[in-house]
Amino acid sequence: MKKRTRNLMMMAACVLGITVLAAGCGQKDSGSDSGSASVGEQVNYQIIGIDPGAGLMQATSKALEEYGLTDWKLVEGSGAAMTAALDKAYKDQKPIIVTGWTPHWKFAKYDLKYLEDPKNVYGGDEQIHTIVRKGLKEEHPAAYAMLDRFEWTPDDMAKVMVEVQEGKKPEEAAAAWLGDNADKADEWVKDLPKQEGKTLKLAYVAWDSEIASTYVVKQVLETRLGYKVDLLQVEAGPMWAGVAEGDADGIVAAWLPTTHKDYFDKFKDKIEDLGPNLNGTKIGLVVPKYMEINSIEDLKKTE
């Protein structure tokens, strides 16, 4: 009777969607030792994703098709839900596969690896670009110049992301980073005039990386140049559309050439690309290093 009750409870958990947090209902409670079970069986044929509008999700859907993973499901959610599922699985040393990108604080907190992508579905390393609306250069030349000069490294971004993840407010983490890197901010605003009282709007998606960069830029525009900066947190599609339609002055959150390719192609005639503000990004499928798989092709194995 106890065994039957336990099985019914596990089935109910799956119906309620608790598989996302448990990284696979019905998987064996044996840490990273999966016995003879395939990788798919270990994780209930689920890949834990983020918000459905993200280019990373589109690329992952394409990867499932290209690699013939017809039995697999890409679970939609959010960046926060994905990292919560990863945290739970990692603490229990359970198998889990998530959609991932770099820079992200999870690579500093956990020992992770990207699965090899021999078909190159996810493309190579990406860049994060700064995109502004048409006419910004003429209306706000100081802001345009600062945004055009803004550039930092994945290590810079990671320092802000980790502090936010550990409990600091984004504005506090950004201010702390700028306090330690005043020389970089000096270069971004060199010889630019103050713009007291003028207002700007920056849009961003609620990814840890874009929260970090957007709040740093906001701090510089406000404390160094005197602007009042309003932030608009939206999904990726509305973020791009906002700049194209003039509802936002700019973004520092455009992942190119892969993640946001569709949005760039759609709006490229209505926006201005100021080029990369960060080099060395990457997207793909991520697993803990304790999992004995190395390639997306390994997901097709049944034994």
Characterise this structure.
The chain is 42% helix and 19% strand. It is elongated. The relative contact order is 0.19. α9 (154-165) crosses α10 (170-180), α9 (154-165) packs across α12 and α10 (170-180) crosses α12 (208-223). The chain has 14 helices and 9 strands. With 303 residues, the protein is of the alpha/beta class. It has 2 domains: 2-124 and 284-300, 3-Layer(aba) Sandwich (D-Maltodextrin-Binding Protein, domain 2); 127-281, Roll (Dipeptide-binding Protein, domain 3), CATH 3.10.105. The strands form 3 sheets. Strands 3, 4, 5, 8 and 9 form a 5-stranded antiparallel β-sheet that branches. A two-stranded parallel ribbon has the order 1-2. It comes from Paenibacillus naphthalenovorans. One of its GO terms (biological process) is choline transport.
